Amino acid sequence: MSGFGTEAEQAGSPFILYLEGEEQQAAMEALSFWVSGLLLPVYGREVTSRSPWCSQWWEHLEAVAQLHALWLAWQELTGPNGGLTGPAMWHRDYLGPVMQALRDPDGPFAGCRPGGHRAKETPTVEAYPA
Q: Whole-model pTM?
């Protein structure tokens, strides 16, 4: 998943797309624990064609990036330094928009069905003219 951004941008960044090797594996395990242990049991509404979810969400890079960002915001806003309004801000500013984007019928899980992951085709990109 690495290779995004410059080395200076990546240095010290906890964002999962910048991590490699054991550090990335540990972040994915922690994210998976949070998604399956807290996010989905509390906020994972029923899967429908209008609100899809992929049981193999980790196979969708966009979902990994968005869920990781959601988890980082959750840690900051619900932790000891989040303040009394931190959890409300997390729900309003992060949870709703991220879940809506992920579960949109045209979102990253479009075509996935309960128990059935479908890989997405990446749009073609032409080389930037130098």
A: 0.83
